[in-house]
């Protein structure tokens, strides 16, 4: 009953005209960046982070969340029609989705992707509503040791799932921690790594780092290649899947939803792992696995449901523990912090309007996405024809303006350009930026909790293993660190390794 | 002779240089941590986490170097093989020039040439299309920010914008 009252309260917030407008802008931009290859949700969210300053916290967060789950919807369109994933979570959709489009079944592929996403997104929201308050009440008992170990686990999981060498990913995570510690020490107020520059006293901003590493670096990488698009010129008809399509897709959608939601909750996991996991599961369960790769609708329905459910599940650790499980959530945490809010166990009780408003807005956003992605599919197809040589200078200009507006400081533009160049070389040499960004956000919290737990325990390191939750997290983290040394686990890691930056 | 060529291959190994940069960074972080004072385990100081993170960085960089020396790795050339490597160089040069000119010349006088260069030098857009985009987009953005959102963009020594 209490949940229903809270949901009603949330709808009261979400249905305010200004919040509806921000929700629409969010899902619209999300679909747009999902559709356009070369700009992912991370770049778009970092670009729009400064804009959230102009409205209320609710409006800003509702818009940012909309961009995230909107991009999951939009990503499928390019995968199916052009065979280029708009964002990383839609890579798998290309395999069977584009084959279906080639066979003249683009309509059912797009339809099942949109309906699967809607069903999974709705399920994830209901689960979020039910799980988050319960987890938050448990999380109140968390001490600094638990928080420290959970953050370590989150970083290790992300490095485990990152493409390429794990040593490189761990090196990136450590670099991120160091970058996050630049500025005044929160306990002693001593300046660290500021090199005498006043601009660095407050540390490096998240916006220039993310925009540089993901926005500018992505543009630099894209300019290296000639981007060719094989856009379907045929008219897209029969968007509503047939009864046979629904029958084939029901199982994959259900399994993908549950798997995606659970993987979304895990720190370090996310939509990309969920979509790959769902595809592998469906292929394994299928009586005719040879159909996969040749236009099997199950190969579209499962992964699309999984990546949307994961997008919903990823809100749980952020909202209840204040720990972002992936880079996108780290950006959302940045939006909370900009408004002086700290997500965590107390947020649901202290700021119910914000929490339930965001949850309710996601229901509305999911409905908006269904309308945006089915009847308006023609408009998105037209957008795909925008040439990249016009698009990329615009992206660069918008990132420059976005960074400048976030702080009114030219120094941040320099930082962004520097990180753009560093990010480009990092990607060329096989160093993924995702662990760096997550560690950059978690670094100060990690240090704070480590130092607090050491002070509280009077320097007794056993505090991390004597507390069961902390011990379990550390044990899991150690297992993942040792895992890649074992050949069997290394192979598995290579199979699920992801490219967060895409 | 064969030894010489082996050394050459190793020195051109991009993995090795990546690891060495990581090692140098780790060394610098350790040094910074020590300079900031470590404190004690009961009361960790400002450099405590930096110091131990630096050690971890050196360990991970060390393992990258060992892997590069024992297993080899791709050369710098191979990383840029079959790519139009001059294009990102052009974009980087344009961005650096823009960064230097932004404070002096202001947003409008820096961003319009930046847009012209990016539109014309990478994958050339026709002049009749490039010029309007390069002029109108920064002008439009400037107008929205200044007039609607009341955000002052840098106006430079000529105070334009």
Automatic annotation (TrEMBL), chain A:
<feature type="transmembrane region" description="Helical">
    <location>
        <begin position="167"/>
        <end position="188"/>
    </location>
</feature>
<keyword id="KW-0472">Membrane</keyword>
<feature type="transmembrane region" description="Helical">
    <location>
        <begin position="386"/>
        <end position="404"/>
    </location>
</feature>
<feature type="transmembrane region" description="Helical">
    <location>
        <begin position="323"/>
        <end position="341"/>
    </location>
</feature>
<feature type="transmembrane region" description="Helical">
    <location>
        <begin position="353"/>
        <end position="374"/>
    </location>
</feature>
<feature type="transmembrane region" description="Helical">
    <location>
        <begin position="410"/>
        <end position="426"/>
    </location>
</feature>
<dbReference type="InterPro" id="IPR002823">
    <property type="entry name" value="DUF112_TM"/>
</dbReference>
<keyword id="KW-0812">Transmembrane</keyword>
<keyword id="KW-1133">Transmembrane helix</keyword>
<feature type="transmembrane region" description="Helical">
    <location>
        <begin position="258"/>
        <end position="281"/>
    </location>
</feature>
<protein>
    <submittedName>
        <fullName>Tripartite tricarboxylate transporter permease</fullName>
    </submittedName>
</protein>
<feature type="transmembrane region" description="Helical">
    <location>
        <begin position="200"/>
        <end position="221"/>
    </location>
</feature>
<feature type="domain" description="DUF112">
    <location>
        <begin position="20"/>
        <end position="438"/>
    </location>
</feature>
<feature type="transmembrane region" description="Helical">
    <location>
        <begin position="109"/>
        <end position="131"/>
    </location>
</feature>
<feature type="transmembrane region" description="Helical">
    <location>
        <begin position="469"/>
        <end position="489"/>
    </location>
</feature>
<dbReference type="Pfam" id="PF01970">
    <property type="entry name" value="TctA"/>
</dbReference>
<feature type="transmembrane region" description="Helical">
    <location>
        <begin position="138"/>
        <end position="161"/>
    </location>
</feature>
<feature type="transmembrane region" description="Helical">
    <location>
        <begin position="12"/>
        <end position="35"/>
    </location>
</feature>
From TrEMBL, chain B:
<feature type="transmembrane region" description="Helical">
    <location>
        <begin position="125"/>
        <end position="145"/>
    </location>
</feature>
<dbReference type="InterPro" id="IPR009936">
    <property type="entry name" value="DUF1468"/>
</dbReference>
<feature type="transmembrane region" description="Helical">
    <location>
        <begin position="16"/>
        <end position="34"/>
    </location>
</feature>
<feature type="transmembrane region" description="Helical">
    <location>
        <begin position="46"/>
        <end position="69"/>
    </location>
</feature>
<keyword id="KW-0472">Membrane</keyword>
<feature type="transmembrane region" description="Helical">
    <location>
        <begin position="89"/>
        <end position="119"/>
    </location>
</feature>
<dbReference type="Pfam" id="PF07331">
    <property type="entry name" value="TctB"/>
</dbReference>
<protein>
    <submittedName>
        <fullName>Tripartite tricarboxylate transporter TctB family protein</fullName>
    </submittedName>
</protein>
<feature type="domain" description="DUF1468">
    <location>
        <begin position="17"/>
        <end position="154"/>
    </location>
</feature>
<keyword id="KW-0812">Transmembrane</keyword>
<keyword id="KW-1133">Transmembrane helix</keyword>
């Amino acid at each position: 009953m209490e949940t229903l009252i809270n949901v009603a309260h949330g709808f009261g917030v979400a249905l305010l005209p200004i919040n509806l407008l921000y929700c629409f802008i969010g899902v619209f931009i999300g679909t747009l960046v999902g559709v356009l290859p070369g700009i992912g949700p991370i770049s778009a969210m970092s670009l729009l982070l400064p804009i959230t300053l102009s409205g209320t916290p609710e409006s800003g967060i509702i818009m940012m969340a909309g961009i995230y789950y909107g991009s999951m919807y939009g990503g499928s369109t390019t995968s199916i029609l052009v065979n280029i994933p708009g964002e990383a979570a839609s890579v798998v959709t290309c395999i069977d989705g584009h084959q279906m489009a080639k066979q003249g079944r683009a309509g059912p592929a797009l339809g099942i992707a949109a309906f699967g996403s809607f069903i999974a997104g709705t399920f994830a929201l209901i689960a979020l509503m039910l799980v988050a308050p319960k987890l938050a009440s448990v999380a109140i008992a968390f001490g600094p040791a638990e928080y420290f170990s959970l953050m370590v686990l989150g970083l290790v999981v992300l490095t485990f799932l990152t493409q390429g060498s794990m040593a490189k990913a761990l090196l990136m995570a450590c670099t991120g921690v160091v970058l996050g510690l630049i500025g005044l020490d929160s306990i002693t107020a001593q300046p660290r790594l500021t090199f005498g520059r006043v601009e660095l006293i407050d540390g490096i901003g998240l916006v220039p780092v993310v925009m540089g590493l993901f926005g500018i670096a992505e543009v630099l990488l894209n300019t290296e290649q000639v981007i060719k698009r094989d856009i379907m010129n045929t008219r897209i008809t029969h968007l509503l899947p047939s009864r046979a399509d629904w029958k084939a897709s029901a199982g994959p959608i259900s399994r993908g939803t549950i798997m995606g939601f659970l993987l979304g909750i895990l720190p370090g996991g996310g939509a990309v792992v969920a979509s790959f996991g769902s595809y592998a599961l469906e292929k394994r369960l299928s009586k005719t696995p040879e159909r996969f790769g040749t236009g099997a609708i199950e190969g579209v329905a499962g992964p699309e449901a999984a990546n949307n459910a994961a997008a919903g599940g990823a809100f749980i650790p952020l909202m209840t523990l204040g720990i972002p499980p992936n880079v996108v959530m780290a950006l959302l945490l940045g939006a909370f912090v900009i408004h002086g809010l700290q997500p965590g166990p107390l947020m649901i009780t202290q700021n119910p309007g914000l929490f339930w408003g965001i949850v309710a807005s996601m229901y509305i956003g999911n409905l908006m996405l269904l309308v945006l992605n089915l009847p308006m599919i023609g408009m998105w197809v037209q957008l795909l024809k925008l040439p990249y040589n016009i698009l990329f200078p615009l992206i660069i200009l918008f990132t420059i303006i976005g960074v400048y507006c976030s702080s009114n400081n030219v120094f941040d533009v320099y930082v962004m350009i520097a990180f753009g160049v560093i990010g480009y070389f990092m990607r060329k040499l096989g160093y993924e930026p995702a662990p760096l960004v997550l560690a950059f956000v978690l670094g100060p919290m990690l240090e704070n909790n480590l130092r607090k737990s050491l002070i509280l325990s009077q320097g007794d390191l056993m505090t991390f293993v004597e507390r069961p939750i902390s011990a379990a997290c550390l044990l899991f983290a150690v297992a993942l660190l040792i895992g890649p040394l074992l050949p069997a686990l290394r192979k598995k890691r290579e199979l699920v390794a992801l490219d967060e930056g895409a | 002779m064969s030894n010489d060529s082996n050394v050459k291959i190793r020195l051109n190994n991009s993995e090795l240089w990546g690891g060495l940069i990581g090692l140098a960074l780790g060394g610098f972080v350790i040094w910074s941590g020590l300079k900031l004072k470590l404190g004690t385990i009961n009361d960790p100081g400002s450099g405590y986490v930096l110091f131990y993170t630096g050690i971890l960085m050196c360990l991970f960089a060390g393992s990258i170097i060992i892997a590069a020396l024992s297993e080899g790795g791709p050369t710098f050339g191979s990383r840029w093989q079959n790519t139009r490597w001059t294009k990102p160089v052009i974009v980087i040069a344009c961005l650096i020039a823009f960064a230097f000119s932004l404070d002096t010349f202001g947003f409008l006088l820096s961003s319009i040439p930046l847009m012209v260069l990016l539109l014309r030098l990478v994958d050339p857009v026709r002049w009749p299309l490039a010029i309007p985009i390069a002029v109108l987009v920064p002008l439009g953005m400037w107008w929205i920010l200044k007039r609607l959102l009341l955000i002052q963009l840098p106006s430079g020594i000529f105070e334009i914008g």
